[in-house]
Amino acid sequence: MLLVFITAIAHLLSALRLACYRRDEGSNWRRNGLMNSLCGGAFCLAGMDLLLTAASVSPWHAGVSVLACALIIRSGGNIMVLWRAVK
């Protein structure tokens, strides 16, 4: 149960950070905004699903969720910074 709660909170924190990202009016602001919105929505739905259904969560899922949350918070909510780093 603790793993489910940790994973759900990590998903919701990631979604909140992506939702609170302040966009600058740069060259690709539409693509950045769309990517942030899609990822934020996916994280929010995943977190709410875990909280409402209390589905079983593997330690790998929890670890990857916490890592993703830390990376999103560290990047300031700009998911495109992480996207460019992976490319």
TrEMBL record:
Keywords: Membrane, Transmembrane, Transmembrane helix. It comes from the Bacteria. Pfam families: Phage_holin_3_7 (PF05449). InterPro entries: Phage_holin_3_7. The chain crosses the membrane at residues 33-52, 64-86. This is Phage holin family protein. The lineage of its organism: Bacteria, Pseudomonadati, Pseudomonadota, Gammaproteobacteria, Pseudomonadales.
